[in-house]
Amino acid sequence: MHNAPRNAYELMGRPDVLIHLAWSGLPNYKSLRHFEQELPAQYRFLKGLIESGLQNLVVVGTCFEYGMQSGPLSEDVMPRPSNPYGFAKDALRRQLEYLKASHPFQLTWPRLFYLYGEGQAESSLLPQLRLAVKRGDQVFNMSGGEQLRDYLPVTEVAKHLVSLALANQDVGIVNVCAGTPVSVRKLVEGWIAENNWSITLNLGHYPYPDYEPMAFWGDAGKLSTLIGKAI
Q1: Could you tell me which residues come within 8 angstroms of residue 175 by beta carbon, excluding any fewer than 6 positions away?
Q2: Alpha carbons 113 and 178: distance in angstroms, whole number
Q3: For the chain, which residues make up each domain, given as ranges?
Q4: DSSP class of 102
Q5: pLDDT tens-digit readout, 173-182
């Protein structure tokens, strides 16, 4: 990605649509590399594809573009990123919007909220819980668990991304989310019950993250409309 060949579009078989998921440096959301290295590299790569003929681009964004804003968040809410990762993603979206003025193409920007499922980083909540159960731990250390988030299984998110890509529309920003807030504690308790695990939660062991508000979730209205039309 950081040293993409000039003929990348040709080497990829001149695709009708590209779903762009690539981004290094996660989950260190506060690293300056997000706008010092990733932002220019990813824009340069995508610009080259557009200039070579790509007409339909789907680039995943992040709920961190909304920053420390609380409550239900719709696509009309002004982005106010509060960490380097959210800032870099929002900046990339703005750059691509400007690029459309000189090289018209269809852009869909799915803002992902919280995902869980197979393939996620071992440092994530569900893999850590599974590991604790496998080790035979009696307790699982976590935060107070009262923060409200918006979660979707990664398999469902993948289906939504494919549907948005195949819609072949200039969608712009769209939240990819459940649209329903759930506490982290309730989510973890659900996993334990679903798998019949025997482990006790040690709530309040870790402090709440300082890079996200206590309660926020996505408005899924636009996504529901788009997916309904696609189906």
Answers
A1: 63, 73, 74, 75, 110, 111, 113, 218, 219, 220, 222, 223
A2: 9
A3: 8-230
A4: H
A5: 999 999 999 9
Scan for tokens 């993603």, then name that residue: 89
61, 173 contact by CB (below 8 A): yes
Q: Are 38 and 25 in contact (CB under 8 A)?
A: yes
State how far the Cα of 210 lies from the Cα of 83, in Å rounded to an integer: 10
Q: Please write the tens of the pLDDT for every residue from 115-137.
A: 998 888 888 899 999 999 999 99
From the list 64, 79, 9, 70, the residue with the least C-alpha distance to 31 is 64
CATH number of 8-230: 3.40.50.720
Query: How distant, in Å, are the alpha carbons of 19, 30, 74, 128 from that of 121?
Result: 21, 17, 28, 9
**Burial class of residue 34, CB neighbours in 10 A (0-12, 13-18, 19+):** buried
pTM: 0.91
Tokens of 91: 């900046």
Give, to the nearest 10 degrees, the angle between helix 184-195 and helix 125-135.
40
Q: Which is nearest to 59 in space by CA: 146, 161, 188?
A: 161
Task: Please enumerate in sequence order all residues whose Cβ is within 8 A of that of 159, keeping only pairs 6 or more positions apart, or say none.
Answer: none
- Half-sphere exposure (Cβ direction) of 107: Cα atoms closer than 13 Å: 24
